[in-house]
C-alpha cells in the first residue's frame, strides 16, 4: 500500500506541469505562411507560438468576421482553471499522504481519478463550446461572407482534435506538453488505485 | 535513292549529336559531371547558397544577388534617391544625402567590402564608396539598409576605397584625383608638386559600426587607383596602386602613360595611428557631412564636421614606401596569406607580384632607388617575387581561392586567367563576354576564400541578351572554380555598372536578417503607437498628420481643414508585425515620391497642396485582398477658409 500511496502523492504533482506548459496547440499554415501561425492554449490564457502570431491571426480573422482571440481577463475559464487544477493537485496528494498514513483506502484514488476525469470532460466541453462560438458567431458586417456549396454560411470552428482544411489554411489542433503531463499524472493515480487494489487482495489472501 | 536519303538523315542525326557535345555550356570533365544547368538551377522554394553584393556603379546603389542562380533579390539605396522605398525622398532619409555641397541625390558607387574579424568575413556590415562626391557608406547586413554616410574632405574621385583592415579597425578611402589641399583658386597647370592625394582612415566602432575620420595622409599628387589591406603577416600595412606618377594635368590618356613604372604605395597605418595618438599630425579646418540613420527612431540626422587631422608622410619615417610596378597598375590585391601583393599593370601583358617578406628585407637593407617627395622608392628587383607571363592583355584585378590559386581578369583580351601563387604558372583561362572589369570570389579578399564560384563582371554586353535599344544592362558570368579547370555556368544581367562585388555564404546572413521592426521599440518623434492616438495637429501653416496603417485602412482616412499653402507632413506608422507586409503612401500632386513603410516603422512624406479640392491618397503596396479599398481623402480649402481641422475613420 505504501508504493501505491507514493504513486498517488506523485501523480497529481504532474498536473503542476500545466502551469508551465500549454494544454493544447493549434497551428495554421497556408501557402503564404510557410512558417505557420500558431497559438498555445495554457490554463491561464492563450499565447503566441511565435511572437505576434495572435495579432496576425486576429488580423486575418477580421476579414471573415471572427472575434479577436480572448485575453485572459475576457474568459472566466482562465481565472478558474488554475484554481481548480491547484485544488485537485492538493486534494490528490493529500489523499495519497493520508493513504500512506493508513487513514484512507485506495478507493479514494479512484474517486479522485473519476472527479478529475469529469472535470476534464467538462473542460473539453467548455473549450469546444468556445470554439463553436469563436468559429460561428460572426460579425454580420464581416468583409467576406462565404457560403458552403449548399448555401449555408461558412463557419470556421477549429477542430478539437486533428487536422482540417479551412479556406486556404491547414489547421491542426493537438494536445500539447501540459496535456501529456496531466495524462501521465492521471495514469499514475489509476495505477496507484490498481496497485492498492492488488495489495489489498493479496493481504486478504494471507489473512 | 531511298537508301541514300536515309543515310543522309543518319549523317544529319550524327552531326546533331556532335553539335550537342560541343555545347559550350556543358562540362568537358567527362560524362559524370553534372550539366551547367543543374549547377545553377535553384528549384522553386529552394534558396541560393551565397549572397553576392554587386556595386551598382552609376546607379548609386548596391544590388543583392543569389549565387549560383544569379537572381537579383534587392536594390539597396545608398547614394541615390530611390522612389521604390522613398529613400532620399522621405523626411527621415533626406539627411542621408546631405554633403558640404548641399543635397546630392546621386553618386557613383564602386567597391563593396564586407566587415571582417581576424581577416574572415563576419557579416555585420558592408561598406561602399561614392566616387564622385567622396563619401563612404555603411550598410547594415541585418536590415539591408544604409545606416551611415560620411563625406571625405580633401578628396576627389574617391576610388581606392572602401576597403577595410582585417579586424574592421578602419575603412580606407583614397583619392583618385589629386587636388589642391586645402582647395583654393590656382592655375591648373601648377598641378605638379602642388596637388595632394589624400588617403583617409575612417575608424569603425566595434559595437555599433559608427564611423569617424581619424586622419588623412597627404600623399604626393598621384592618382590612387585601388587599395587592399595587408592581412595575417602583413596586417598593419595598406597597399595602394597609383598611376599618373607623371603628375600630368591634361590628356592623361597619353601623358600619364609615359613612365615605364608607376608605384604601389605601402603605408604602415599602425605606425601612423600611433603617431597621431601621440599628438602627431596637423589639425586642419574642414567641412564635411556625417549622416547617421538610427534604427530605433527610423530617422537620419546630418552633422557638419569642421576639422580633420592631416599627416605629412615625411613626418613619419618608416611608414611609407613606394614599390615600382609596371604600367599604370589598377588592381593591387593581397593574397589570403598576406605574403603577396599583386599589381596588375593595366597596359601590360604581365602581372607583377611583390613579396611582403622581400619588401621588409629591402626596407631593412635600405635597398632604395631614390625617392619621391621624400618617400623612399624600393628597388624593383628587391621587392618583386615573380611575374605571371599570362599571354593575355590588360590585367585588372585578382581574387584568390583557398587552394593557393589566383584568378585575374584581363580587360583587353576579355578573359579570366587562373594561375598558381608561388610558381606563377598559368593553369587555365576562360573567355568572358565581354571585356571583364572586376571579378569576385566570395571571401576572395580575405584570409578565408570560399572556392566554389567566381563572378566575372563585364563592361560590355553586346549580343548576350535580347537587345533593348542602345542602352543595355551590363552582364556577369558565373564560373564553377571547384575543379582544376574553370567552367562557365551562367550569364546574368547586372544593374548599373558593377565595379566590384563582395560575397559570403548565405548562412552568415540568413539567420540574422531582420523580418520586422518592433512597433514597441519605435522611438520616432512622430510615431502613432496605437490607432487611437492618430490625429492631426496644426502649427501655423505646418500640419502634422499622425497616421497609422493596418490591413487594410489608414487611420484617419478622412481629413478636413487643410488649406492651400499648408505644408502637410504625413507621418505614417505601419502597425503590422508580420513579415513582408509593408504599406505604402502616396497622394495626388506629391512633389516627392511615395514612401514604403515597413512593419513597425514610421516614415514621413511632405505634401504641399496647391489646389482647392478633395484629393485622394492610397496605399501603393498590394497589402491584402482589400488593398484597393485602402484609400482616403483630404479636403483642401482656400487659404482664407474657416473649415475646422478634423479627421475621422469609419464615420
Automatic annotation (TrEMBL), chain A:
<keyword id="KW-0472">Membrane</keyword>
<feature type="transmembrane region" description="Helical">
    <location>
        <begin position="178"/>
        <end position="196"/>
    </location>
</feature>
<feature type="transmembrane region" description="Helical">
    <location>
        <begin position="84"/>
        <end position="101"/>
    </location>
</feature>
<feature type="transmembrane region" description="Helical">
    <location>
        <begin position="108"/>
        <end position="125"/>
    </location>
</feature>
<keyword id="KW-0812">Transmembrane</keyword>
<keyword id="KW-1133">Transmembrane helix</keyword>
<protein>
    <submittedName>
        <fullName>Uncharacterized protein</fullName>
    </submittedName>
</protein>
<feature type="transmembrane region" description="Helical">
    <location>
        <begin position="7"/>
        <end position="27"/>
    </location>
</feature>
UniProtKB/TrEMBL annotation, chain B:
<protein>
    <submittedName>
        <fullName>Sec-dependent nitrous-oxide reductase</fullName>
        <ecNumber>1.7.2.4</ecNumber>
    </submittedName>
</protein>
<dbReference type="GO" id="GO:0030313">
    <property type="term" value="C:cell envelope"/>
</dbReference>
<dbReference type="GO" id="GO:0050304">
    <property type="term" value="F:nitrous-oxide reductase activity"/>
</dbReference>
<dbReference type="InterPro" id="IPR026468">
    <property type="entry name" value="Nitrous_oxide_Rdtase_Sec-dep"/>
</dbReference>
<keyword id="KW-0186">Copper</keyword>
<dbReference type="GO" id="GO:0005507">
    <property type="term" value="F:copper ion binding"/>
</dbReference>
<dbReference type="InterPro" id="IPR015943">
    <property type="entry name" value="WD40/YVTN_repeat-like_dom_sf"/>
</dbReference>
<dbReference type="InterPro" id="IPR051403">
    <property type="entry name" value="NosZ/Cyto_c_oxidase_sub2"/>
</dbReference>
<keyword id="KW-0560">Oxidoreductase</keyword>
<dbReference type="InterPro" id="IPR001505">
    <property type="entry name" value="Copper_CuA"/>
</dbReference>
<dbReference type="InterPro" id="IPR011045">
    <property type="entry name" value="N2O_reductase_N"/>
</dbReference>
<dbReference type="Pfam" id="PF18764">
    <property type="entry name" value="nos_propeller"/>
</dbReference>
<dbReference type="InterPro" id="IPR041114">
    <property type="entry name" value="Nos_propeller"/>
</dbReference>
<keyword id="KW-0479">Metal-binding</keyword>
<dbReference type="InterPro" id="IPR008972">
    <property type="entry name" value="Cupredoxin"/>
</dbReference>
